[in-house]
């Protein structure tokens, strides 16, 4: 390599380090600014406040119209070890964690009580820019906020761009040889020798299941968690092509199967390619969700993906999970002046019942929320960071599609 090329690369590395440091500082500042200080010792995120409910609503969620009935029950629970929430500005505010705990104490049935199995949804389209990650995180959040259901949700980010980790709470390790794990780290552990990150966790005495849990990050909701991705995960394809063993089954066998009973719904967010990583997602899933923007070029690329999809699935190794359903979800739909109406309707006409009736609209509210490391569902109109009408319409479109997806899943036998 020439000295000129090496100099160019070193300059790029310096710039990358600066950008990464600046972005980390920006994220930390935004998250800190989104906290509300209630007293000298107590501060809480606006996201948690936005999703908290007053005592009257908590009582009704339990099925009691009388707040006095709820208060009496709460007194009984305290004797069993339950600790009521802090009062915020003179009133009780029940965060999602408390909502779930109380609904369990009240004996309200949840999704897993109906033995529906684990739905593993691969969100995939070879066309980039169709809103796969945006669709995944917003649908997961919308379903996670349906507290009466208490659906246990995991998102596995299999896209090396790794954008979904921005919506999770990061982990930090005091040990220099430990760092954030990804699905690919777990899938390739035995191929990368004694110096692998996975092996470092083994050296500290963690079991395989413990290590998988270390790879999963919490969010503001107790029932929505994220396994992040990083650019280094691209190496999976190289290891697959160069190795003697077929690595496609490993996502299912080494990552999902050991923990599937802990979750009701697992989303897999994939990159805009066709490669061993996306084949791994096809092998592991029992449902396929294809987001598409109703734009001519996007739809043309998507139809090519759909045309080739049967061949990809048939070429998978034996032992795959088996796809029970395929659905198309229209995203980034511009409703203003009916710009996308014609093609949106044509997509529905051509693929009929394979297309969800509801769709996610195009709105600046999604971008604004993402800049604040949130989904639109985590933003309150009173914060003033989004135009109220845009925020309301964006939320409605996500919730409507999430409800249609939920009803669809209830009809699927696993």
Quick structural overview:
This protein is α/β, with parallel strands linked by helices and 414 residues long. The protein has helices at 3-33, 46-50, 55-61, 67-79, 96-105, 132-144, 183-187, 197-203, 208-214, 235-242, 250-256, 276-284, 296-314, 341-351, 364-371, 388-410; strands at 35-39, 42-45, 53-54, 87-88, 91-94, 119-123, 153-157, 217-218, 224-227, 265-269, 287-292, 325-330.
Tags for this entry?
P-loop_NTPase; 7-stranded mixed sheet; single chain; DNA_Partitioning_ATPase; ParA family protein; plasmid; AAA_dom; Rossmann fold; 414 residues
Structural class: alpha/beta
DSSP summary: helix tally: 16
Percent range of helical residues: 40-55%
How much β-strand is present in the residues?
A: 5-15%
* Shape assignment: globular
Unreliable parts: none
Mean pLDDT: 93
CATH homologous superfamily annotation of the largest domain: P-loop containing nucleotide triphosphate hydrolases
Work out the radius of gyration. Answer: 23 Å
Q: Any idea how many domains?
A: 2
Could you spell the SSE succession in H and E letters? HEEHEHHEEHEHEHHHEEHHEHEHEHHH
**Distance linking N and C termini:** 55 Å
CATH architecture of the largest domain: 3-Layer(aba) Sandwich
Number of strands: 12
Main beta-sheet annotation: 7 strands, mixed
What is the topology, as strand order, of the major beta sheet?
Answer: 8-9-7-10-6-11-12
Q: Would you state the CATH class of the largest domain?
A: Alpha Beta
Keywords: Plasmid
Protein name: ParA family protein
Organism: Vibrio parahaemolyticus
Pfam families: AAA_31
